[in-house]
C-alpha cells in the first residue's frame, strides 16, 4: 500500500482526510482504486484525455516525477499530488 497525501484543496473529496492508503503498481492504478472509494478525486487530478491536469504534478518518495501517472510504485511509497502555486 502507498500513502497518498491529498492536497488541502482536494480533501473535501476524501471526507477531510489528508492522507489515505491505496495499492497500485503505478500512479494511474492507484488513482483508479482511489476513485472507487472517493468519487471525483481522479477527475480532479486527471483530464478527460487521461493526462494530468495542467498545474498538477506527481511526487513519489519526495521527488517530482516526469513519468507522472506512469510512475511505478513500491509498497510503502509516499505519493503526493502537487498543485501549482501561482503568484508574482
Describe this structure as you would to a colleague:
By secondary structure, the protein is of the alpha+beta class. Helix content is 18%, strand content 24%. It has a 5-stranded mixed sheet with strand order 2-1-5-3-4, covered by helices on one side. The mean pLDDT is 93.
* Sheet with most strands: 5 strands, mixed
Element order: H for helix, E for strand: EEHHEEE
Total count of helical runs of at least 4 residues: 2
The structure class reads alpha+beta
Q: In percent terms, what proportion of residues is strand? A: 15-25%
Characteristic key phrases:
88 residues; 5-stranded mixed β-sheet; globular
Q: Quick summary of this structure?
A:
The chain has helices at residues 27-37, 41-45; strands spanning 2-5, 19-22, 56-60, 63-64, 78-83.
Write the layout of secondary structure elements.
Blueprint: E1 2-5, E2 19-22, H1 27-37, H2 41-45, E3 56-60, E4 63-64, E5 78-83
Parallel strand pairs: 1-5
Antiparallel strand pairs: 1-2, 3-4, 3-5
